[in-house]
């Protein structure tokens, strides 16, 4: 099993053990070294103390100065060569120290034994000689005494002149046994302490690590639940302000934010699904309505083309009447000026109609404008009918006047013969005007029937084009002013002779028919434009329908994905 597959608790406990065991080993090693050094230091201190004590005893027991006589070391008058009693007694007093007196660097009295013999004549170690005899300083530390290491202290001996002539040395016995005993005791104490501390540390670490890993496991369980789609989780208790507590609080905030976000996404997906369904239904209804409008507009276009043909025939008839006009009287100039006024007002009305057409950029606006044009065409045809009736009435009155003139000319006899010829011509002109008026009336009747048929076809669509009523109303006002101006023209024409009245009436009728033809052509063009626009709108609505269907499918997929998350317990 690999280390990375262990739990966090196991890893932490192993890490703590790996830290504590080397730490205790290092501390034990340091304690052993410290104990050994302490023992060595104590031995050196003891050797120095024993050296000073022994030298004081020498001074007390053997008064006098140090000197060399005949190759022997003297203290006062006593030769110290072979004076083993003092060194043995002092060695016994100090607990077994090695004690020696040196003449120069050679032992002359010593407790040191080799092969059961005192080692007289042996020399001191070189480092001792260098420090004590050469430098004249006290030596303290380890020294090799006959191949055995001692903790020693050496004091230089000086004669009266201050010359160094020998040494007084004391050495503690070997410390290996003492150090070994102390090391065993220290090792035992360290081992016991380590076991106790490790046990306590393991228990405390297990308790502490278990507390940490318990909270980490709780966070891990929450993460697994969130990964499984469960957001209906209770809030974890952070407990502390450490990193685990911060992680727990962050996890609580994350779950809360996810729960809120998924709730909003779910609500939004429902709204999108509902909106897409409504958009689907609206697009389908709009498609059906657009198809109906396309059919109606095509019917209107066909009717408008028929109207154009009829109006064109009427215009040809009126053109024949207008060809009879040769002379215009002064009164007709006034009528012409009034007619110009009517033309200007009609142009204003035409501009108003054009403004309405420009404003109706959508299908509903174009249909409303077309309905207004057709209604205006009906009004114009009615007005033409009134003009025809007026012409018929004028022709009748003219015929009566011609009859009266014929009667009066008959009464006048020979003198009234010329007047009779004029009356006969007037009567013939009245009859021709009556016939033309009848033909125009028939054309007007046919136009009115076509207009009525177109109006009936537009009744189903007129409700959709009410938005353009204001603009068309302006156009209606303009045409109302045209009607008033034309009425003034009619009054002026009455002041002219019968022939001028007939001619002017014919001229006005020709203009009216020409305008009707222009309006009919404009209506035909408008219906074609509307038909093309509605077909484009139909294609657009089909694209909208397809997009709304795709949106509905996406909303259902989003609801399915969001449904995997449990937001409430």
Automatic annotation (TrEMBL):
<dbReference type="Pfam" id="PF00015">
    <property type="entry name" value="MCPsignal"/>
</dbReference>
<feature type="transmembrane region" description="Helical">
    <location>
        <begin position="190"/>
        <end position="209"/>
    </location>
</feature>
<comment type="similarity">
    <text>Belongs to the methyl-accepting chemotaxis (MCP) protein family.</text>
</comment>
<dbReference type="GO" id="GO:0007165">
    <property type="term" value="P:signal transduction"/>
</dbReference>
<dbReference type="InterPro" id="IPR004089">
    <property type="entry name" value="MCPsignal_dom"/>
</dbReference>
<feature type="domain" description="Methyl-accepting transducer">
    <location>
        <begin position="282"/>
        <end position="531"/>
    </location>
</feature>
<feature type="domain" description="HAMP">
    <location>
        <begin position="210"/>
        <end position="263"/>
    </location>
</feature>
<dbReference type="GO" id="GO:0005886">
    <property type="term" value="C:plasma membrane"/>
</dbReference>
<dbReference type="Pfam" id="PF00672">
    <property type="entry name" value="HAMP"/>
</dbReference>
<keyword id="KW-0807">Transducer</keyword>
<dbReference type="InterPro" id="IPR029151">
    <property type="entry name" value="Sensor-like_sf"/>
</dbReference>
<dbReference type="Pfam" id="PF17202">
    <property type="entry name" value="sCache_3_3"/>
</dbReference>
<keyword id="KW-0472">Membrane</keyword>
<dbReference type="InterPro" id="IPR003660">
    <property type="entry name" value="HAMP_dom"/>
</dbReference>
<protein>
    <recommendedName>
        <fullName>Chemotaxis protein</fullName>
    </recommendedName>
</protein>
<keyword id="KW-1133">Transmembrane helix</keyword>
<dbReference type="InterPro" id="IPR033463">
    <property type="entry name" value="sCache_3"/>
</dbReference>
<keyword id="KW-0812">Transmembrane</keyword>
<keyword id="KW-1003">Cell membrane</keyword>
